[in-house]
Amino acid sequence: MSLTRRRLSITGAIGIVAWALALWPKRAREGDDALDFVERMTGRAATESTQLRLLMPTVFSTGYTVPMDIQVESPMTETDHVKSIRVFAPENPFVEVAQFHFSPRRCLARVSTRIRLAGPQHVVALAEMSDGRLLMAKSWVSVATNGCR
Known about the structure:
It is built from two helices and nine strands. It is an alpha+beta fold. The strands form two sheets. Strands 1, 3, 5, 6, 8 and 9 form a six-stranded mixed β-sheet that branches. It holds the Pfam family SoxY. Residues 41-148 form the Ig-like SoxY domain. Keywords: Plasmid. InterPro entries: SoxY, SoxY_sf, Sulphur_oxidation_SoxY. This is Sulfur oxidation SoxY protein.
């Protein structure tokens, strides 16, 4: 069997089609990337919710001190409260950047702080409720400099 230009072209075309098919499902479900990420990190499914709000600037000059506000609408009673909030930055060297714990009848489920980001990315907040539900919110943040060096 000799290598001809025709066989080389056919083999190349098959390789390109196989590569495109391997990437196609990922691009078709780009909106589910954060949900998939949370499921890989926690082993549980989360639901996007307006009850959890992650407020961050869409563009920030430096990745060293990016402001972040998180609020969860919850009565904070013994039977209905926020147990914890975890914050993930998938492109950072250390993916989990913050974790906060709450007690019922002690406080509001609200946090205001600053985090470091390695580059432009979606930041994902995950709130665990007392009934076992996981609420998720994400925010795109574009930073000009890497804050994780």
